[in-house]
Amino acid sequence: MKRLISFTFTLLLFLGACKTRSGDSPEKNAETNQDKGSQTLLGDLVPGTSGEDFNIVKSKNDYILNLPNASQNSRGALSSHDWELFNSKLSSVSDDASPSLGNDLDTAGNAIISSAGHNVFINPDNGQDLVVSSAIQRGGFFQAYANTNSNLTASDVVSFGAQSRLDSNYYSHSIASDTDKITILKSGFYKISYSVNFYSNYANRLLIRSYLDADGTELIPSKSYCYVRHKSYVRRCTNAVTLIANLTEGQILRLKVSSSTNDTFSNAKSVDVLANESWILIEKI
Asked: Would the pTM count as exceeding 0.90?
């Protein structure tokens, strides 16, 4: 309020000065203006936007009234572009949003502002506390799983014959043919998790290895191992990994599996992957 009063007073003084001829007393100007029957401004008032605050500049015979556009560093007027940004954000808020403290309180006494499924809780006892609780809808997910029993041999691949989510802007995958292939459609970083449950029918010990393959190259670090004994004893185990990988558009991912009686994997044996117990989840980040 003080700034507004100061600004108004300054402007009135300036306008009064513009109506007074330089070097003459107010009485002299009054006489001159009375003789002429009108008052004459000494120069034109020209709008401008220079500076970081409201200012008045004398330029030759003109007076420039500068009111800059508001910014991070300047006080001034909102531009039409600023208004469009603000107005578009305001129109996206639901009609039932309640920004006033004391309205729509939760059980903890927080004021709730709701918009499109997102809740913002503001504690009226401390205006600096802000807690956001939101079920954010994100894109870039792929999840699939093996839906049939399969017997894998050396350097075989896991087939994903069913999928619960595929965001087609990021991935391509078929559940009808080449179900082991997952094609990346956009370059960038991805968070990848997989879990494979194995079941052994071999009458001896087995070491089982799995890893993610991208166009024939192992993704590092994606390798995981597990160990099973004789089929009459402990015959189940699980390999699982989570990693972040920088993938390129067009790359094809596969989940590869090998099993052997030794740790050099020179004596390959088959192992079963059971339906509905092995999956892969990929998220674009």
From this structure: no
